[in-house]
Specification:
Strand content: under 5%
Number of helices: 9
Shape: globular
Order of helices and strands: HHHHHHHHH
Helix content: 55-70%
Number of domains: 1
Radius of gyration: 16 Å
Largest sheet: none
Distance between the termini: 28 Å
Length: 172
């Protein structure tokens, strides 16, 4: 990792330090994502997914758990979003050199930070997810998106520019 990436990760860690731990684990969110609409999730499945959790703070969320669970930010309420977002941003920055077919957590994280301009209900839902972010955290999101916008990657680069233009810069 270069120094700019390391500095941004440090700023993310500082801005989100003390974020209240979400009650729902990533693996529980994954269950909801996989089965929430197609079948009932049993109490045993839910409990087992929660017991595999190792984090007491977002900084302790292992990269392999993010890889296993993929990006689930779209399913989270504001407090959960605030807790998990910095882990996803950190992972995305650490893996930004990897091709999309290996991991696109970075792209999916950027997408979670880009409220729809085509669907008002979806836009309202996504913007509500940001409601628990404080001013310092919002600024870090902007810095994160600006970093991604500088990458030599057409998709993530252009999505980050769109997110900045359609929402984040007007909120600064």
């Amino acid at each position: 990792m270069n120094m700019e990436t390391i500095r941004l990760i440090t700023r993310i860690e500082n801005a989100f330090d003390g974020a209240v731990r979400a009650k729902t684990s990533l693996r529980q969110f994954q269950l909801t994502d996989r089965y929430g609409m197609s079948r009932e999730i049993t109490a045993d499945e839910w409990t087992a997914a929660g017991k595999r959790r190792v984090d007491a703070t977002w900084q302790q969320i292992p990269d392999d758990e993010i890889e296993e669970c993929d990006c689930l930010l779209a399913h989270m309420g504001p407090e959960e979003f605030r807790y998990y977002l910095p882990a996803y941003m950190r992972y995305g920055l650490k893996s930004c050199h990897r091709p999309i077919w290996e991991t696109d957590v970075l792209g999916m994280t950027v997408f979670a930070l880009w409220p729809s301009t085509k669907n008002d209900d979806l836009r309202s839902y996504v913007i509500a997810q940001y409601s628990a972010l404080d001013e310092a955290q919002r600024k870090i999101v902007i810095h994160f998106l600006e970093f991604v916008a500088k990458l030599d990657d057409d998709t993530r680069h252009s999505d980050a520019l769109e997110a900045l233009a359609s929402y984040w810069r007007s909120q600064a």
